[in-house]
Automatic annotation (TrEMBL):
The lineage of its organism: Bacteria, Pseudomonadati, Bacteroidota, Chitinophagia, Chitinophagales. This is DinB-like domain-containing protein. It comes from Chitinophaga ginsengisegetis. Residues 11-139 form the DinB-like domain. SUPFAM superfamilies: DinB/YfiT-like putative metalloenzymes. Pfam families: DinB_2. It comes from the Bacteria.
Length: 148
């Protein structure tokens, strides 16, 4: 049951991420960092994909993905098309891995310690979904702020 809920949430929010990035009027707008804003939408997009590809793809799905978290926040001017391809490939990996998890897998302790205490895989996947949604809201605000 939790699998289905997680699949719906990640599908919805990764599709919305794709829509938000595609909605920028210019590629330069994706990378603009107005005063008072810490990260561009492009960097948040790279961060979200790297985060999900690492914690779900590499750790749970054994995809071999190697994360470069520093690059997620330092890269600039990645073409919009490349960001959209990255989101699409991330969505495929995430949905495939989650669909393959059993109820027992979701109850097991997540294989890596991420925070100060251990948590179930299901709990951590819910956390990753809310993390995606948090940054998705930032991207939506960034887009509206920079295009007004």
């Amino acid at each position: 049951m939790l699998n289905g809920i997680l699949i719906n949430l990640f599908e919805r929010d990764l599709s919305k991420l794709e829509e938000e990035i595609a909605a920028y009027e210019t590629a330069a707008g994706i990378w603009r960092v107005p005063p008072g804003i810490t990260n561009s939408a492009g960097n948040l997009c790279l961060h979200l994909c790297g985060n999900l590809q690492n914690y779900i793809g590499a750790i749970l799905g054994k995809t071999g993905y190697v994360r470069n978290r520093e690059l997620e926040f330092s890269a600039r001017n990645v073409p919009t098309e490349d960001l959209l391809v990255l989101i699409s490939s991330t969505r495929r990996v995430i949905l495939t891995v989650i669909a393959g998890l059993t109820a027992e897998d979701l109850e097991k302790t997540y294989p890596e310690k991420v925070f100060s205490s251990a948590m179930s895989t299901g709990h951590f996947l819910v956390h990753l979904s809310t993390h995606l949604n948090y940054h998705l809201g930032q991207i939506n605000y960034h887009r509206r702020l920079t295009q007004s």
